[in-house]
Queue: 3 jobs
Job 1
Amino acid sequence: MSGNETRAINASVKKVSRPFQIVEAYKSLRTNLLFSLATAAHKSAILCSPEPHAGKSTTAANLAIVLAQTNFKVLLIDADMRKPALKRIFRVSASEGLSRLLCGMTTFEEAVSRNVAPGLDFLSSGPIPPNPQELLGSEQMRKLLEKAEKEYDYILIDTPPVNVVTDATAIAGKVDGVALVVSCGKTTLPEIEHTVEALR
């Protein structure tokens, strides 16, 4: 396991004394994702949550890592252009990234960090723009996903909380699936129902 993999898994384990069960939980989530997207055309999905601090970004990082461990070529995109967290997990610069790419200020090749873990490439959020929702809903975002789908087996996209901003809904129609991350004992049923309705 590489240093980046260890950091990501440790970020999810925190003070839990049973890391094996945590790793197995991510592998179970990977299996569910593979079955859910088995008949999808493009194998792309967003990860979102109703509220902040539900573990969405940690889940996205670890799911991308265990997915890449099955010899799939995976791209993880940090589309949270308001409070990005993934750059800290993978320790990459955010000087380039999604925002600059969608604005035509850089190229895909320059913006993507290659092999942050074996088989996993990462596109950071880039500098925080004034109009993240418009960028995610743009034609440039659609073209980016079309280009990425030709190079990668799976694309995972981390988005901001749905009940805080509407960025995730701007991109939901461009992907094949949605994984909703909720926090046990914190996220309420009304919050989940509101999120599901918004995504629909």
Note: The first helix runs from residue 3 to 13.
Job 2
Amino acid sequence: YAAYEALSDTLQRLLSSLSAFHDGGGFRAIARDDAQRKDLETRQNAVHPVVRTHPVTGRKALFVNSVFTKGIVGMKPAESRALLGFLSEHVATPDYSGRSRWRKASIAMWDDRCTQHRVLADALPEYRRMERVTLIGDAPR
């Protein structure tokens, strides 16, 4: 929420009127079996609003990601790259980050509807094991 709320009213209005192409095709490479790969192939591409309203809190958040968001609908490629580059840099600033102090058996959970997961390579060469659980939820609006 904080990254969206820190933007000017003018930029918030512009972004609220935009949708973006998302491509989750990279998950095919880590699919565990043919059924999972086939499922990912059928729903890997989607168009979502750039700003989504959280269905529980009613608050707005940026819904773009430097890995999955590939372009802004209706924009020329150079415009789209510039805007997505700005947004990716904006959400990655420390002002909008939470950090975990990891200990043995630590668990972290977050709500992808208003939070982005970003790994910093500041604990190398420590071992990190990650199990991902994604719930089927509501359509972004």
Note: The longest helix spans residues 77-91.
Job 3
Amino acid sequence: MKTSTRIKRQAELALSKIEFITRHIRNVEDNCLLLGKKLIELGFIDLGRNLIANGYIHDASKFHGIEYEYLSLSNPADENKKLKLKLAIYHHRKTNPHHVEYWSKGIIEMPDVYIAEMVCDIKARSEEFGTSLRDWINNEGIKHWGITKDHPKYKKVMEFVDLLCVAPFTEIK
């Protein structure tokens, strides 16, 4: 059976999208497993187990509908594609509870398991983009979430970050 050029291009695009999606999901899954185990060791057994379970279903919506079609667009050229990308992002955030936009009161009403998954997600994105997780949280995250560094939810985020991440290097004197 001979495959047409059009089918080959479609297959390459599908495989590229699938690689993009699964790479991110695997990164989040690894983070959820690591953080979940640490939570279990600290006695937060249900939280750790539920976080690990969430890692296995993280971002499953990206394989379907508008998210599959438009979330993996890089630098969409025309305004129509930009709008579709914005709609795909909106859909993703409104249908996945590890995003603050899912919750009517944002991060304020997010249960700890979804805050932990959000931290695992943000850590994966920071590694994928080569950016600092802590800097993003302190400069962008708190603005996005509408909280300050004194807020209990910020402190919860940072507890999870500290468990998930190795302490940064300090200067030797």
Note: The longest helix spans residues 5-41.
